[in-house]
Protein: Nucleoside diphosphate kinase
Organism: Bacteroides gallinaceum
Amino acid sequence: MSLEKTLVILKPSAVQRGLIGEITTRFERKGLRLAGMKMMQLTDDLLNEHYAHLADKPFFGRIKQSMMASPVIACCYEGVDAVQVVRSMTGATNGRKATPGTIRGDYSVSAQENIVHTSDSPENAIVELNRFFRPEEIFDYSLPVQSYLNYEGEE
Ligand code: ADP
């Protein structure tokens, strides 16, 4: 068990389809703490860095265009094992293959227009949060319901 922060980006497909409220409600209901949130217009330079692992793919140009098609909402969520928790709520990359009940499984029929980006490991979450947020944009406030979210000492 470790308290982690993770990056979620509500992609242009979420913003354009009016799903910002639906998606953020899921994370709120799950019990994750919203530690940062902002609207931003992504740039080619930022996306070259963020998707560097896909630079040799034939669809690289298309993904970047799709991520710049409108502003996005960048969010930082915190919780115990938050990276894995958010990743499992996200579902498989291709919305057609993602399990129903996951965000992509419920809202996407596409590999590219798949609603959210979510960090895939604790190491990447740290790098990605530094890429998208300045330190003063991450807020460490406490939730009064904290003792109802986690049982101290649980495995
Ligand atoms: P994930 O977002 O599930 O971590 P990747 O890091 O592999 O997946 O890919 C990053 C993004 O690139 C995906 O979310 C999706 O928008 C896009 N992408 C990945 N694979 C494809 C594909 N085969 N065709 C179109 N877009 C893709």
User: Anything to note?
Assistant: The pocket of adenosine-5'-diphosphate is lined by residues 54, 59, 63, 93, 111-112, 114, 117, 120 (CB under 6 Å). The chain has a mean pLDDT of 97. The two ends are 7 Å apart (CA to CA). The helical segments are 12-16, 20-30, 44-50, 60-67, 82-90, 103-107, 122-132, 146-149.
